[in-house]
Design goal:
138 residues; 3 helices; three-stranded antiparallel β-sheet; Jelly Rolls
Length: 138
């Protein structure tokens, strides 16, 4: 069985962002040489997420509104965690959106549904963070 590891690095200009990373994950799969297997993509930071959904700007705006209602950024003093950093809301948003995705690889390609795309969700940006891409298979 083959195993391949790659890190994808991101630094957003905003506190929150949703980046489509499907092509970067597909490139990692191609570089791995795996034709049949699985790819794991996970955020290596506790205030970021990797998830699968539709690449539609209205939906991304809905994520933003919904997550902000669930875990509003401000007032900062509403969270016991806040002190050294004011990012408790980002930890909670990550908890809702998830840490990772696993996607099947078939014939050397990501085996996604018709509208599925892989996203990196940033909830406490403006600093460098990474996503692990781990490919295993034959």
């Amino acid at each position: 069985m083959k195993s391949f590891r790659q890190e994808l690095w991101f630094e957003t200009n905003t506190r929150r962002a949703y980046l489509n990373i499907t092509s970067q994950v597909a490139q990692a799969v191609a570089a791995s040489g795996v034709k049949e297997g699985l790819v794991l993509c996970n955020a290596m930071h506790i205030t970021a997420s990797v998830f699968i959904n539709d690449n539609e700007s209205g939906l991304h705006a809905d994520f933003e509104k919904w997550l902000e209602r669930l875990a509003p950024e401000k007032p900062y003093n509403q969270y016991a965690h806040n002190g050294y950093e004011d990012n408790a809301d980002a930890h909670l948003k990550r908890q809702v959106m998830g840490r990772e995705v696993v996607v099947a690889i078939t014939n050397g390609q990501l085996d996604l549904g018709p509208w599925e795309q892989i996203f990196y969700g940033e909830f406490d940006g403006k600093r460098r963070k990474r996503v692990l891409v781990k490919v295993i298979g034959e």
